[in-house]
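Continuing the series of single-chain predictions for the mutant panel. This is the parent chain; the variants come on the following pages.
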Amino acid sequence: MPLPYSTFSDHLDALAARQPDAIALIDRDQPLRFADLRTRSLALAAGLSRIGVQPGHRVAVWLPNCAAWVESFLACAPLGALVLAVNTRFRSVEVADILGRGRADWLVYWPDFKGIDFQGILDGVAPVDVEQLQGAVALAGPDELPPASLHGKPVHRYDALLACADLAPAPQANAGVLCFTTSGTTSKPKFVLHDQKTLLRHGAVIAQAFGYGDRACVLASAPFCGAFGFATLVGGLARGVPVVCAPVFDAAQSAQAIARHAVTHTYANNEALVGMMQAAAPGGFSSVQLFGFASFTPALDNMLDLAHAAGVPLTGLYGSSELIALVAGQPRDP
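Parent structure:
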């Protein structure tokens, strides 16, 4: 599918110029417009550049689904920095492997996040695995005080980088921008690299294949750090429609978000979808146009009945880190 842009910076510039007030993200019910997403991403890119992030550097982004994950990715892309997407379910052994074998230069994380003990996990990482690390960026609230250092490396506040008044460097051309970790034939995760043009093209294919119209609204039910979650995000970004996210998946809260934000599409495993449909109020899914699922829990055999009762169209999906994800949505009509 031909696209006018091969980089996220060019694509975001175009979206912000064409629909500046349109909603790009809804993070915990807080909307972020495309113009503001562009402004924040550019400011963060300037801040990252000021602390030393350069083309070719590897930035491990270890965050749950939130606006900061998206801003960090969109800030790294024009800098020519490669995002190592660290799974939020990883613990010390896996994180040490990603930081060490992935040769991470920087780490973006949320030390006081209540859902995951990020700081405790990092305390269990051996110093040898962070030898290449130049520093870290910590997401923190106004009343939270992140650590001053991590294994002897400086920790910078995320909000301080956002406040950087420097101009962002000129954007780099298309290159590798995102590295997933996925299961391999060994005990260690393998790395899968994608460039910007590939990701944008796949996002456009998703938006077209699953029928994103002008009023589409997509719920991110899977983590952005993985193929399903990132494909959900990039599909929304490619089409310029809102993506709803929350740091912790909760079936009941997700069902409420679907009703509250008139969500039209989401993609998840069958267990998550069953939980949402069981928690939904009558008529709560009236906006839904399509749920896509991967069957990770075959014993849950009531999903079709629940979907029929809720009036929710379903399509089967196959996800692949190598192909990004959502590569085999089944046609709904025979």
